[in-house]
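This follows on from our talk about sequence and fold. Please put the record directly below this note.
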Amino acid sequence: MKFKDIPNLLSFIRLLLVPVFVILFLRGSTTAAAIVFIISGLTDVLDGYIARKFGFISNLGKVLDPLADKLTQFCAFICLYITELVPLWMPVVYFVKELSTAIGALFVFRKGKVVVKSHVFGKLATFFVFAFVSIVIIFGDKISHSAIVIACALMCVYFLFSCLMYVNTEIRNGVGAAKKEQNP
């Protein structure tokens, strides 16, 4: 293994942590599940830092990293729903948000073979999800359900904002770049 492969290896490890998190959480080992979830979030930051700092950004990493993030976060929301910590609409909204951004990125890729990069608003959404889920896992029994629902609603508003910014900037830029390549 080469040093340049570390970011992709960390993303792959995050993918492997998803079933570990789900099993621990659903068996009631919430402290262990929270630790696994936090480790997943920290390795996400680490792999992104290493990839950018040393120029190890790859097309595989552009797919593997967000896949690991989305799968981790979606499974966490499903687990929180199953244990009645969040309402059903929270994982549904999250899924719709991610599906719409994936369709947009696929559209841009098909137009001009441009891989849409992550956006600062998407990174903030990822941070908010990791922070929210970690807090709910650790302190969910001490937080009122109303407070959790309000936090879910606020997160959904941010998801909408994040999607709109993504569509407005990255997809428009990706289509523009594709047109420039086709008409030099």
Notes: The chain has six helices and no strands. The mean pLDDT is 86. The domain at 3-182 is CATH 1.20.120.1760 (Four Helix Bundle (Hemerythrin (Met), subunit A)).
